[in-house]
Design a protein that fits this description.
5-stranded antiparallel beta sheet; 95 residues; 37% strand; 0% helix
Length: 95
């Protein structure tokens, strides 16, 4: 899987509202990841990792902000399409 997300400390999240559909799968490390989707359009909205219980990942596409800050790190480059560019980001290589 390749995507982009913003990680927030759980205590930074004041509320999560709206209906979601959940899908859980195992990560590469064998721990559970719980994805939350819009039940109408199927867009991923946010997800939670068992191995990082203090954080919530929110899909960048969920923010209607053209000035959202750019990424600071890139991981799982082996899975991205060859036409995707990570630019000058510091890379954390994972397969």
């Amino acid at each position: 899987m390749f995507g982009n997300q913003a990680f927030f400390k759980r205590q930074q999240i004041t509320s999560i509202t709206g209906e979601t559909t959940q899908f859980a799968r195992l990560s590469d490390t064998g721990r559970s990841v719980s994805f939350r989707f819009c039940p109408v359009c199927g867009s991923t909205v946010y997800w939670e990792f068992k191995e990082a219980p203090d954080f919530i990942a929110v899909a960048i596409g969920a923010f209607a902000d053209p000035n959202f800050p750019p990424p600071r790190v890139s991981v799982y480059e082996a899975r991205m399409h060859p036409w995707v560019s990570t630019g000058e980001l510091p890379l954390e290589r994972r397969s």
